[in-house]
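Data deposition worksheet. Section B asks for the primary sequence of the deposited chain exactly as it was used as input, without tags or linkers unless they were present during the calculation. Section C holds the resulting structure in token form. Section D is free text for depositor observations; keep each observation to a single sentence. Incomplete worksheets are returned to the depositor.
Section A, Depositor: J.P.
Section B:
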Amino acid sequence: MSKNIRHKAMDLLARREYSRRELATKLMRKFPDSTEIDSVLDLLEAEGLQSDSRFAGSFFRLRVQGGFGPQRIRAELRQRGIGDELIAQQFSEHEVDWFAAARALFEKKYTGLDTTETKARAKCIRYLHYKGYDAEHINALF
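Section C:
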């Protein structure tokens, strides 16, 4: 049974990086009665085939490229089982100018919009909050 679990885990990891929690969840759905999932995941981690650090770095870069802000990225990493220490490490390793990222997203989405209008401005602010930017980043735009 553990051989089947390992093969399924490696099939998943061949496509993209997964956090340990994500991988465990997927394997639990496929093998609901198995008690060997944790030991298989420990072995994969020891062999360097699964790494939360590698996943966090990959995920972080992908989300920054997608225009997401620090709050949203932090929340999504936590949701995927990444600890606060590893999240802080990713933020310190990847120097991101969040003000420039917020400006680029704003200009891409709302070029030509009259932000002096209260309704239009509120729409922009809601969108930037949704994308994960905090008030400091948003206020710098207006």
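Section D:
The CA atoms of residues 60 and 73 lie 7 Å apart.
The mean pLDDT is 92.
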